């Protein structure tokens, strides 16, 4: 029995020391998360841009007239925007560059996309005074604009202000990706380096990062279990030794070991939930690693546009956005209304496509499901159920950014969320993804305490992380003392 105890102690120490530095990194960065996401999170004056209706923008020229005057025969999409008291056609060219043409005379606006991004950045911040330090087009995610923000490409508009405010703008949909001040930038760096270990991805790629994290987490679980086993089997001996010392009036020279054991028992369940949810999260991420998925792209031929965009059977006062989509080899005007309905009209005949948004969502879900084999076009029979989602819920959370979306439910248990207005896949949720999502938000982020309010939930999660940190430091102190 003594040999078994010694072996458990030995492996508990080895595994504990292996995980010590990672645990310190994770707990300290975890303690910073509520400050970054709640208490020290920067605020912005406006978070949503409400575009003018078409009746207020009053475009004088049709899309066809603008295209013809500029000799544009092919393009990817268009939109009508109004800024600085002028209305423009925002035309996404064949080269995927957005150009702006006056809706009055079809003249090209130089640097139009930058000007519109700047206009939107000033609108969201309500800052018309500060100068713009720089504005850059961002096509990839980085440390300050992370994948959690989803939207790409965006313009990074950096204000010349003491707080170092950066605003990320998606001009194609007139919306904000995120915004950061100097404090949030520092906290983002801290969390990315010490909690998610982004530096490992820079060294060996995303798969290397995940595998390395799994190895460390794999050391933590047996360390926890071995400590519980030692305490469980030998707690009577620990108790007897303590009582004998008290009777003899001897000094407590092993109080560090005792505190480590007692606090370890108290936080063992918390540590267990952190380990299990973290490992599950990493395994699912590893399982879902794929080559970069190709986004749906379309090319519109000017000859397909026979019906005029200004003559559709929808009141101009109800139109908040209008664009084009290609679905089942046909081109349609996609009209978003102020009531958040999305209507489709044949670009050749002007006739409305019944349930057009559902048909397009199904078409896009087929594209994203079968990128590796698109030899056949989808058939309009036996379509999976499609439901519009206008608000976030437990399955499709706010982390996904995009609304409204269409939820396409397939018989194999996969739910595909499609933002039809951008033709983008918002997210895919399969059975394992759903289980992992619930595990992570309840066991790792303590969303089960949301009923008590965000502040209470964050305080409890911080106490849990602090408990794990203190136990780890007491364990290290005990190891040093043994030496």
From TrEMBL:
Residue ranges crossing the lipid bilayer per the database entry: 12-31, 210-235, 263-284, 459-480
Top-rank taxon, per record: Bacteria
Alphabetically ordered keywords of this record: Membrane, Transmembrane, Transmembrane helix
Official protein name in the record: PepSY domain-containing protein
Organism, as annotated: Mucilaginibacter glaciei
